Amino acid sequence: MNLVTLLPFIVLIGAMFLMTRSAKKKQQAAAQMRDHMTPGTGVRTIGGMYATVKEIGDDTVTLEVAPGVHAIYAKNAIGAVLEDAEYNRIVHGAGDDLTIDTPVVPDDASSLTLDKDADKPEDEAPKLDLGKKDEPKADEPKDDEPKDGKADGEAGTK
Fold first, then answer.
1. pTM of the model
2. Rounded distance, CA 19 to CA 27, Å?
3. 66 by DSSP, 3-state: which?
4. Mean pLDDT for each 10-residue chunk of the chain (158 residues)?
5. Contact 47, 63 (CB under 8 A)
6. I want to staple 62 with a disulfide (CB 3.0 to 4.6 A). Which of 18, 54, 103, 111 is the partner?
7. Taking the alpha carbons of 91, 95, 100, 106 in that order, is the dihedral positive or negative?
């Protein structure tokens, strides 16, 4: 056979070997990281939840996700084991010297708009036209209903 025909297969096998090797290295690094977990360590799950390790089993780990709330996770679900300083900074905001230069947005939007008619009583303030017709009262027939209350083509006695 010609070397030119074998060359793509050799390159493909070499690429597969390198990808498998790097994947194995990542798995080993993740397993080694999980081995450094001890009760009281802060972790981040692969889903992005931060928690504190309470107990470690063979394949599972018990996490405290909130004070007094424990959940059992697979060890493979641990995405990162965090240092105490980093965990406290993320979860508790400890050590953050954040100053906010922008104004705080209020919970309601009433203070964001200027209401020129705020001093007028409610019945005198102009109404916003939303394109809806006023609903007829219960005793009044609707515009699209016949006055006798029968639908078109409905037979009735006279």
1. 0.46
2. 12
3. strand
4. 79 84 80 82 90 91 92 90 86 63 63 59 65 65 60 60
5. no
6. 54
7. positive
Tokens describing residue 140: 């009044």
Return the bridge partners of 42, or none.
52, 82
DSSP state of 109: S
Closest CA to 82 of 119, 47, 34, 126: 34
Closest by CA position to 90, among listed 35, 152, 44, 29: 44
Residue 80 near residue 45, CB atoms below 8 Å: no
**What's the rounded Cα separation, in Å, for the pair 40 and 51?**
9
Question: Is residue 131 left, alpha or beta, with left meaning phi > 0 and alpha meaning psi from -120 to 50?
Answer: left
